[in-house]
Amino acid sequence: MKRAFVLSGGGSLGAMQIGALRLLLEKNIKPDIVVGCSVGALNASFLATDLSLDELTRAEEVWQAVTTDIVYPGARLRAAWRFLTGEDSLYDNRRFYEFLQASGCTPALTFGDLHSARLYVTATHLRTGSLHVFGDNPHDLVLDALMASTALTPLHPPWEINGERYVDGGTVTPLPLRVALDRGATEIYALHLHRPTAEPPKKRLRGVAEHINQAVSTMLRLQADHDLHLAETARRVRLHYLPLWTDDPIEPIDFSHSTTLIEQGYAAAERLLKRGDVAALLDEHSSGRRWWRGWGFLGNSQPSRNQMNNA
Fold first, then answer.
1. Which helix (H) or strand (E) holds 18?
2. Most buried among 2, 53, 133, 231, by the most CB within 10 A?
3. What is the rounded end-to-end Cα distance, in angstroms, of the chain?
4. Is the peptide bond before 158 cis (omega within 30 degrees of 0)?
5. Which helix or strand (DSSP H or E) is residue 259 part of?
6. Residues 151-169 pLDDT 10s
């Protein structure tokens, strides 16, 4: 059996993945490979460094140290000025680059230096629009891969590596299950920062921001649906789906609630483990039918249809 953890993007809500990972490690559920997109790539890099609770404690400390001003430095007026003057993004990501170095990810660190689990990081090749996977080449630099995977357009500029520019991996798929499948995973734990029971907006959308948010959310949801469908139809692959979300009014660009989100992520994973049912649907309203059915979370029993309908 080859077990994979696949961690989605989701901005500051990525702190919830750290809590869920702690619960999994406490249950002695450990991966052979870890795949991460955007903030999920940052969290995956901790596991690849050391599959231990001590390393997750270090990850929690990093999350508690990061601030919104590190990730998105400068006032909104500065962001507006960058837009008007033709910069590649609204915010500079050099402070974030320096923060990752200070947190232990040195520029010389390669994927081949990581031995606790095989790490794969996804980004989008800007020129071709194709998914690029860092980690197949052991000489790939981890810090460059993380910067590429988190370069969320238009907030952050593309990250250049060997003359090629890359942006956030979520542009192609926010939940890159296909990467784990292509590399031989037979069991997958998907930590998806997504509200599984999200309702379509009931009021009329108003303003540019609301329309952009709805369009992007729809795109990301359908892309994740596609990867879940790939996993569901793959033979001899056991999928465990953990949707992680908070009902608190926390925006994905607000990094001031990490401790709370870590605790909520742990509690959410614990509920799913106790319930023994991970057939929670991505969004029952997304396609008019269920794209996929989950297998039993632990043990060999499959959830009944009634269990799935109550998920």
1. helix 15-26
2. 231
3. 27
4. no
5. helix 258-275
6. 998 899 999 999 999 999 9
